[in-house]
Amino acid sequence: MKKIILLVTSITVFASCGPKKTETQLSTTPNQLTELQQADGWKLLFDGQTLNGWRTFKNKENDTWEVLDGTLHCKPAQD
Asked: How far is the CA of 43 from the CAs of 6, 22, 53, 71, in angstroms?
């Protein structure tokens, strides 16, 4: 039984050790894709500057979201 557990554990460890990602595969700049990611068909959901491409539920008009320092923020309620 110990040999089977050791064998299964060894196989699991070796199977989980894949090739390391290189710099060409990962972007080091926030919110930007590498050329390889773009070639693979990846697209950004947020450009970091505008709300272009984002919409509200049922496309209803509202002014609840804003972009601050490259991130999306929900504006506080105006009472």
From this structure: 43, 20, 12, 17
CA dihedral 46, 52, 58, 63 (to 10 degrees): 100
Residue 46 to residue 43: CA distance in whole angstroms: 9
Residue pair 30/38 in contact (Cβ under 8 Å)? The answer is no
- CB distance 37 to 27 below 8 Å: yes
- What are 27-72's pLDDT values in tens digits? 667 778 889 999 999 988 888 889 888 888 888 888 888 999 888 8
pTM value?
A: 0.47
Helix (H) / strand (E) containing 72: strand 71-74
